[in-house]
């Protein structure tokens, strides 16, 4: 049996990756907006984002709007490919065709 990517497979990271995969390639979302969409605490979201970032699946850009720090998030090309592979594997495991 083929294993599902353990980095993505955790429920919170799967939700994060799926949400980021809905963005166009190269498009990003602000941390508070993603937090709101996923209804996650900042600490929980940060912890799971760190694991995705360590795997090079998520790119994090820290900048400022005026004096306010802002963090933008997006799937890297590797992350997008990993998510596509994950969903293909899941479909195959469930007996569907990718």
TrEMBL record:
Pfam families in the cross-refs: HTH_34
Keyword DNA-binding among record annotations: yes
Keywords of the record: DNA-binding
Presence of the UniProt keyword DNA-binding in the record: yes
Naturally occurring in which organism (per UniProt): Diaminobutyricimonas aerilata
Winged helix DNA-binding domain span: 18-94
MF-aspect GO terms: DNA binding
PANTHER family hit by this protein: BSL7504 PROTEIN
Name of the molecule in the record: Winged helix DNA-binding protein
